[in-house]
């Protein structure tokens, strides 16, 4: 009896170890995404529901990020976020019960916006699918943020050029060296209006390593100082082999900066 119980415990442990965010994402896309729409920012959702009476998006079900928030972080969240293992089990149980027998009285969504939602149809889902879906929701926020935010390396006087170049070669990416300063008005404006946009961040993350350099505090890397005319912002595009390819002084509008990025992407 002891050995059998131990075996069951081990199998349960291995099942949870093998659970995957990516597998859960596939399940969500195949079984849920046709109803539950893609990400909409919280700011726009608040405007939609609380200022425009749902007239902008006309949502009849929560979006994927609304679901993830409600399940993991919302006021009626499932489980204790301080105890991830137990929270995972509770979310898994909740999902299986709710998907097979949807009940509006048992929803964890914001009660103020439930009035806009239509009755949900039941979904048959296997145990392993429920577990992977659980991982998808629990790790949704972390994965979305890691993909949307640019990987910005703010260089300091201890930076290592060789390590940066090694990373560029391994990832087959070029370098964008962004010359800025704390007193630069146009740098702050461009960071707010252009560099912070998800579309721009996605394009930069895909093909470039982005290096931010405060020229008032440290020298530009890769011997770029001799090419710098003192204007901030200035964007230097450097190959993975340390070769300066292009220089773009000044602040740029979104469409212009997209053109600049495109000009510096090698055909693959």
Summary?
This protein is α/β, with parallel strands linked by helices and 268 residues long. It has 10 helices and 5 strands.
What proportion strand? 5-15%
Which bin fits the share of residues in helices? Answer: 40-55%
Q: Can you tell me the number of structural domains?
A: 2
Q: CA-to-CA gap between the ends?
A: 60 Å
What is the string of helix and strand elements? HHHHHHEHEHHEEEH
How would you sum up the major sheet?
Answer: 5 strands, mixed
- Physical arrangement of strands within the biggest beta sheet: 1-3-2-4-5
Q: What is the helix tally?
A: 10
| Tertiary shape | elongated
Q: What is the count of β-strands?
A: 5
Kindly state the mean pLDDT as a whole number? 85
Q: Kindly provide the radius of gyration, computed on alpha-carbon positions and rounded to a whole number of angstroms.
A: 24 Å
Q: Can you put this structure into words, describing what you see?
A:
By secondary structure, this protein is of the alpha/beta class. The longest helix has 22 residues, at 127-148. The chain has a five-stranded mixed sheet. The chain has two domains: 13-148, no CATH class; 152-263, Glutaredoxin (3-Layer(aba) Sandwich), CATH 3.40.30. The chain is 47% helix and 10% strand. It contains ten helices and five strands; from the N terminus they run H-H-H-H-H-H-E-H-E-H-H-E-E-E-H. Residues 6-18 have low confidence and may be disordered. Helix 2 packs across helix 6 (127-148), helix 4 packs across helix 6 (127-148) and helix 5 (84-100) packs across helix 6 (127-148). The chain starts with a helix and ends in a 5-residue tail after the last helix.
